[in-house]
Amino acid sequence: MTTAPTTVTALLARLAASGGRPALTWYGDDGERIELSGAVVGNWVAKTVNLLCEEFDAGPGTDVVVDLPVGWRQVVWALATARCGAALVQVDPAATADPAARHEDADVVITSRPGAWTGTSAELVAVALPALARRFDGDLPPGAVDAAAAVMTYGDAIGFDPAAGTDLPLDALIGSTDAGTAGGEAAPTGGRVLVRGDRDVAALLAEAVGVWSRGGSVVLVSARTTAELDADAERLGRLVATEQVTGV
């Protein structure tokens, strides 16, 4: 029996070991579908860790706010933040009207709405949400980094590792939630699990981590797509069949 990973590094190693098998399949709004293997997830995380370290000296002691809606990019930035040893704070973009005032101690802010953070003294990274975006479509505050353009310039393997030798517990991602049981009994070991996007981003990430910890694969759907599937049983059935979902 394979031991479930207890650290972010071990979790990423498990994903990488899955090779070309799908690790994260994302259904966004307007029919967007993205499929990432474990190796590709690892590459994205490595590139993002390198950006965080080289641009902002992120590491243990750095407070990084991830202000992104449910989606594959939110998952990657959360994993990368924890992997470099920084403290991860997740913000639901719909939960606060004045995030800069509520997170005034942030060192780095990763956001899809940089205009909402004009009062912050933190370093800003603007994230374009569409999968094929090559640049942030909107005005950038002075000094803000455009993630769509910047991330791709970094290597697929982590260079300087500020968290080397630390335990990097999965609690850095999921708080007090048990990664071994997150997602409930409906998530079988090694299965394809449909993860609903109509919940708090922290709870959703905890479920995804739980699925991966058991060797499974995540099919993540946006909040709007979740509502549409709830209203259309036939469409839900097609998705379950197409993606070979074994747990909901």
Description:
There is one protein chain. By secondary structure, the protein is of the alpha/beta class. The chain has nine helices and nine strands. It has helices spanning 8-17, 38-56, 72-83, 99-102, 147-150, 171-174, 201-213, 223-230, 233-242; strands spanning 22-27, 33-37, 63-67, 87-90, 108-111, 123-126, 145-146, 192-196, 217-221. The strands form two sheets. Strands 4-3-5-6-7 form a five-stranded parallel β-sheet. The chain has a four-stranded mixed β-sheet with strand order 2-1-9-8. Strand 8, helix 7 and strand 9 form a beta-alpha-beta unit. The relative contact order is 0.17.
Helix content: 25-40%
The 3D shape can be described as globular
Order of helices and strands: HEEHEHEHEEEHHEHEHH
Name of the CATH first level of the domain at 40-153: Alpha Beta
End-to-end separation in angstroms reads 24 Å
Uncertain ranges:
176-188
* Contiguous helical run count: 9
Rg from C-alpha positions?
17 Å
Strand content: 15-25%
Instruction: Give the structural class.
Output: alpha/beta
Mean pLDDT, all residues: 87
